[in-house]
Amino acid sequence: MAMEIEKKVLTKIAKSNGGVLKVTDVLEEARKEESVLQKYFEWDDTEAAERYRREQARALIQRCRIQLVETEPVQIRAFVSLPTDREHGGGYRLMSEVVSDDTLKAELVRDIQLTISRWTQKLHLLDKDLATMLLELEERLNRKQQPAQQRA
Known about the structure:
Layout: H1 4-15, H2 23-30, H3 45-63, E1 65-69, E2 73-77, E3 79-80, H4 83-87, E4 93-94, H5 95-99, H6 102-124, H7 128-151
Antiparallel strand pairs: 1-2, 3-4
Helix pairs in contact: 6-7
């Protein structure tokens, strides 16, 4: 199976630290030339720095908020990443443009539905009641989308 050796190494590291897997310990192991973990990291400092700056830029974009004013002001993300954009090199779109375009809005809703589905699967392992609540939310989203899809 994929990742079996890596999983064993990570489990060993966690067990040696009281069951807690720390990033610093993983990096320490990965720095060893013979480590199976080494291939998962960028060791060229210039390239790694550029990748890190890209992650920082993503975090900055995700922290940017806009305020919606309906009955009460609500802040939401100003930019959103859609699956089709991620498939073609990435990028973020203005939320205001996404919600005003039926095709983009439908893609965003579908992405949200897939996220809810993944969360529900994970929650079933921990808390059946919360998982049931997420299932209900997913069903409500599906019902709300059906009339919109029938109009299209």
